[in-house]
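I can't quite decide. Please look over this sequence plus structure tokens:

:::
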Amino acid sequence: MMSSLQITKSIEGDLSLNDLNAEQRKSIVFEVSGPDQYLKVFTLAEMQDGKLTLSDLKPGMYVVKETSGNIPAYQNNVLYSTAGGKLEIQAGETAAITVTNQYAREKIDIPVTKKWGGKSGKAVKITLIADGKDQNTITITEKDGWKSIFKDLPKFDAEDGHEIRYDIREEPLKGYTTVINKTADNGFVVINTVVPVKPDKPNTPIDPEPDKPDEPVTINLPKTGDNSNVVFYAMMALISVSVVTWSITRRQKKR
């Protein structure tokens, strides 16, 4: 009398059976081995609503094993409803086994530390960026010790399994420069440094135009060596002599 085996596939955690696309269903592979070198290989894509029944089986010990079930971006833990996926099927019996995949997206935390160069501000706002797209924004204050964490972030993309690139952006602070450094633990250090205030440039006084000195008055004095002056003095002397001579002659005539 022949027997049968019903295999049920269950998916738990961060994925459900309905979340799997056609390619992912083909990637989950099962292998059933039994008496007389019996071997059956099939995929989840061949199951109906996660169920498959193998018929016309000989009685004996069978082993059900999932040989491939990894989904990109997820960690997979496989559980069997029987120890090691083994079960003994009796003649004419329909045995059953459930294979459960517990999928969990690999998560990471991204710590953010705030440092100040100079006087600290009151608060800062940090936005998380995943593959170039803004996610959530947190506020960090002195009360938090200038530290915060973006928690439970998926490490891999759920669509194609690539590792997600995370960055952060700080809301600009007036009067500060910003430098963002990445740390070894997937975190970031944000450093704000006070920009020195340049003193106002003093007004340059305009020097008044100095008074021009009065033009010097030039007095031309006679030059002793000048020939015209010699003639002048000679004539004056001659006239004086003539006057004196005339006066003496006149006095003598009156006597």
